[in-house]
Specification:
The protein is an all-alpha fold and 124 residues long. It contains five helices and no strands.
């Protein structure tokens, strides 16, 4: 994956995280996970400017993708309580946003590791 493609997917991940966090805060109020999502998005933004944050940002994005799949499965499991499947409209929207967040988080497995490799090529 090229650096441009990596940055496009990273921007999509940032937007998905911020939208999910803002929807969660507006629906359920501020909580630990929504604040953590905002911090993850800020870390990703910082990785655009600081090369030292690239590897940490990639690892955090991967972990976020995995955790959101777990959260998504737990929300869907909670929808089966009571004998039939039902999710409230707010949970349906949250599930869709978490699915976007998990998909964009899983793209981190293919992101460029560092900008330093490309800088070394340009110097030669």
């Amino acid at each position: 994956m090229t650096l441009v493609t990596t940055n496009i997917f990273k921007i999509f991940f940032i937007l998905a995280g911020l939208i999910t966090a803002s929807y969660s805060i507006s629906t359920f109020g501020p909580g630990m996970w929504s604040i953590l999502l905002i911090c993850v998005a800020l870390l990703q933004i910082g990785s655009f400017f600081l090369n030292g944050l690239l590897e940490v940002a990639n690892i955090v994005a991967r972990i976020t993708g995995i955790i959101t799949v777990i959260f998504l499965s737990l929300i869907l499991l909670a929808g089966t309580i009571g004998g039939s499947f039902h999710l409230s409209p707010s949970n349906q929207i949250l599930c869709a946003l978490m699915a976007l967040l998990s998909l964009s988080g899983f793209t981190a497995f293919f992101w460029e590791r560092t900008k330093l490799d490309e800088d070394k090529i340009n110097q030669e």
